[in-house]
Amino acid sequence: MVDNNLLHFEDYKNKKEEPEVKCAHCGKYIGMHKKKCPHCGIHFRGEAFQFKHSSEHDYTLSKNKTIKVLALMVLIILISISLFVVLYKMYAN
Q: What is the value of pTM for the model shown?
């Protein structure tokens, strides 16, 4: 006798919802373990979750570098102005 309430592993595996990620090529959402995007057809060397779409890249490193460069420029300008004021007062007398 077969119990209809039992769920076989293969049925469970097929029914289970897979988390989705953006395709690295087209940006549409696909299952994270796919090896090929069903929308654009690109093949992945590995699984889809190992690749990021360009909209998901973290650019904080370049932003931090820009802030550091700007801070350094402001510091150089302030030191230059201070040096100019000191020299001007020294030679004005």
A: 0.38
Q: Which residue is associated with the tokens 């007398």?
A: 93
Mean pLDDT over residues 31-36, rounded? 82
Determine the residue type at 48.
Answer: A
Phi, psi torsion values for 80, nearest 5 degrees? -65, -45
Contact 59, 42 (CB under 8 A): no
Helix (H, G, I), strand (E, B) or coil at 29: strand
Nearest-angstrom CA–CA distance, 71 and 75: 6
Q: How far apart are CA 25 and CA 87, in angstroms?
A: 60
Residues contacting residue 36 through CB under 8 Å, at least 6 positions apart: 42, 43, 44
User: Cα–Cα distance between 92 and 18 in angstroms, integer?
Assistant: 77
pLDDT tens track for 35-91: 888 899 888 777 666 666 666 656 555 677 888 899 999 999 999 999 999 999 988
